[in-house]
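Quick bug: HTH rpiR-type domain-containing protein output formatted oddly.
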Amino acid sequence: MLSIYEKLENILRMNDESTYYKIAEVIVANLFNKKILSQKDLSEQSYSSLSTITKFSKSLGYSGYLELSILLKLEMEKYSAKKTKPSSSFLKLDIEKEIREWIKNNTVFVENFISILKGNSFFKINTSYQLASSGLFLKDILTIKNKNVSLITENFSLLKNTTNRKNEDINLVLLSGRDTFTMISYLNLNSQNWNMNNTFIFVTPNHFKKLTTKFKNVMIIDFESDNSSFILRTFAFNYLFALISEYI
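Here's what came back:
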């Protein structure tokens, strides 16, 4: 059974700028400050009506916002109690420093990645749902640099065998999150025909074990504060891609 936070993550993962997306975004943003808004405050901050907040809550399986907020508070307290290193301030968590250290530990991969981005024109970004927004961010960066980029996200059409343009495409893979069965099946089916020198994969340790292809260029997602969340991983990859963009 999904937690409330996971349900909110699923809405944010769609990145569709809908009313429900905005409501979920406001709730999650306040959770970082350990704050759960009243229905009125949530309505004002998300520019939604009170009735829309109620409908949003019911869409997640609750009788209304009151039940959702009570259970969310219990969930937040339960999560906080599990922390082994409690902090009086979120700002004490130097997530940016941890991500920089993660990048530094993968210097060879990152330098090769930058080199391949600079020296080629055709790219295919294959991304699971969780990192779809980061994949789109990378696509926008490469497009600005006058690169030809296609973006493939997790969907059943991926199971159809596809071939690269005379093996010229550089395959970039972003693989993390829960909904990855189709993407893993797609990779195991198609990547055998890819040029491993032209393939770069960002992947969690657990997902890497499920891949049958022996990839040459791999960056494991293992920065210290990684907790599998959509928000933290999206921040990490957008930070990485923003840094890389300065060298392309």
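Actually, after a second look the formatting is fine. The two ends are 43 Å apart (CA to CA). Closing.
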